[in-house]
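Backbone geometry:

***
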Amino acid sequence: MILPDHFRAFARRPTSLPAAVQSEVLGWDLPAELIDLGIGGACVVIGESLTLGTTVRLRIDAPQLWEPLLVPARVAWTIPSGTVEGDRRTRIGLRFEVESPGALLVLAELIGPTGTFL
């Protein structure tokens, strides 16, 4: 659930890039609707509910990249999407835990100052 004092340190840009949320530990790869993307995190909608703090990896399939961008992340918040009756999808906020300067650079270039790639 989103906390009332929630704030975002880095701006996000709306996007519609293909994506997936993965867990190597649990062995799953869930298709995701990527809602927005920023240097610090992303919002996705998936068909499963995840526990706060779960470690995942966001796979972003951008057409201008040779291979998918894999970004380590942690589930920061969740909220049922449920705007349509029977919709069991969940909106999830991911906080990135990027350790590689190269991955951070690719992410920054993907977002860009104008968001042209999103």
